[in-house]
């Protein structure tokens, strides 16, 4: 049982290091020094540095999927689902800033087989967002001429959070999501603007 706790501690240090120095810029020695154990002893808890990266990115992918699935399968209106989905996405990023940074930036450093696993989960996640948007259009709640770019815009806004969000800042994830949703749903053009008699 202590070994499980030790591995979680090592993972936490690896997440921080990968988020700051990048996967390739972090050495096993960096991880072992941060963990307070010798490099050789590190291998009693892990098999390789890539194992750590896969664990971090796989958990990240699962966190996004687990947050979104009940919303997609729920009974709310399309707009309410979209609002809840963005809140859920931003909450995952905000509550796991180091892991989100690694997930967004370092997953492509994985070997082909492992990268394919993460890619599959990312594709599933994006298809769930497409389903939300398609449902909104079908029900007449949303007007999207380009579903792909609408999804990219929403997820890009949520994903970029890791660059500027601070837990001790003035806004909670829910408040940030609400502000994004206001812009997304209402747009920024003045109503009736540009009309000339």
Descriptive report:
With 197 residues, this protein is mainly alpha-helical. 72% of the residues lie in helices and 0% in strands. The chain has helices at 2-21, 28-35, 39-42, 49-72, 78-95, 97-106, 112-138, 147-159, 161-164, 173-186. Helix 4 (49-72) runs antiparallel to helix 5. The termini are far apart. The mean pLDDT is 89.
Task: Write a brief structural summary.
The protein is mostly helical and 197 residues long.
List strands and helices in order, with pairings:
Layout: H1 2-21, H2 28-35, H3 39-42, H4 49-72, H5 78-95, H6 97-106, H7 112-138, H8 147-159, H9 161-164, H10 173-186
Helix pairs in contact: 1-2, 1-4, 1-6, 4-5, 4-6, 4-7, 5-6, 5-7, 5-8, 5-10, 7-8
Instruction: Tell me the distance between the termini.
Output: 76 Å
The helix/strand class is: mainly alpha
The unreliable regions are none
Give the fraction of residues assigned to helices: over 70%
General shape: elongated
Q: How many H/I helical runs?
A: 10
Major β-sheet, in short? none
Radius of gyration computed on alpha carbons: 20 Å
């Amino acid at each position: 049982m202590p070994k499980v706790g030790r591995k979680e501690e090592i993972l936490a240090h690896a997440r921080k290091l990968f988020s700051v120095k990048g996967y390739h810029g972090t050495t096993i020695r960096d991880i072992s020094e941060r963990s307070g154990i010798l490099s050789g002893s590190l291998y009693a808890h892990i098999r390789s540095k890539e194992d750590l990266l896969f664990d971090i990115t796989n958990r990240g992918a699962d966190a996004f999927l687990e947050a979104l699935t009940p919303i997609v399968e729920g009974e709310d209106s399309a707009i309410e689902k979209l609002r809840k989905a963005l809140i859920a996405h931003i909450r995952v990023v905000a509550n796991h800033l180091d892991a989100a940074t690694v997930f967004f930036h370092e997953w492509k450093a994985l070997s082909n087989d492992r990268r394919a696993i993460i890619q599959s989960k990312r594709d599933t996640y994006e298809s769930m967002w497409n389903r939300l948007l398609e449902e909104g259009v079908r029900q007449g709640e949303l007007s999207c001429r380009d579903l792909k770019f609408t999804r990219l815009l929403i997820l890009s806004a949520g994903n970029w959070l890791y660059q500027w969000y601070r837990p001790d800042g003035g806004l909670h994830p829910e408040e940030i999501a609400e502000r994004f949703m206001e812009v997304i749903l209402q747009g920024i053009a003045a109503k009736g603007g540009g009309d000339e008699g």
